[in-house]
Amino acid sequence: MADLTTTTSAVFIPEVWSAETLRAQEAALVVAPLVKRFDNLVKGRGDTVHIPEVSNLVANDKVDNTDVTLQSPTESEKSIAIDQWKEASFLVEDIVKVQSNYDLMAEYTNKAGYAIAQAIDSYLLDLYTTFTNPAVGTYGADMGDAEIVGAIQALDESNAPMEDRYMIVKPSQKAAIMLLDKFVRADYLGQYQNPTPVKRGPNNRYMWGEIYGVPVYYTTQVPVTAGTPTETHNVLFHKEALALALQLAPRTQGTYWAKSLGWLCTVDTIFGAAGLRGDHGIEIKS
Length: 286
Known about the structure:
The protein has seven helices and 13 strands. The chain is α+β, with helices and mostly antiparallel strands. The protein has a domain at 39-54 and 76-85 and 127-248 and 275-285. The N and C termini lie far apart (66 Å).
């Protein structure tokens, strides 16, 4: 029997393309707004930001009929080198622009902008190595209440203000915190009618909630060092632990490239970042 099958009738069966595209998933970018910023100082000029340090003075006993004790501390400085220039570029040839059913310039311009923002966030998170407090926790093991309390204590003993503290963790560690009963069970909190961090949900897209008054953010951008076990470098820090000077905010430039018969698009930025107060940050291992 001669049947008409999908194979013999393949020329009559169309392939359908969606009007929408499936964009690659993007990691949460949370760090840049949380750190000390010096953008205004470097707009359009300079390659280094110098930040003088001011020491504390001491209170001396005043002895009758003697002069006061003069203090003359020798001061140092912190500096931020504006030495990072990042770019993300692509070219759409005319034949693709003419024949494509999609606005590829718009699609990939958005992705180029994301690549630049991701580079800044990654650079900042890698500065956990500038923290001077001994890390808490154990690589390969989930963080728990003891690690969180220990990290907070380290910042307390460094006189870091309670305001403007932030914790940034891997999604796996957000899940580990959610399994701690004392943070999520109403009978532990004694507030049956009030929301717990889990019930409340995120305060914004990537802020899960607060633990001991510290906002907790999560992102896959948290640095990881491969090994046995894998080393995950979650952080707790005060705003002044890290500094960012964005000299050139991400800009988009497009031009027609006759040599390649296509439109060239570039998104770039110039910035510098550095550890500012090492004792105002701490790594939480997991």
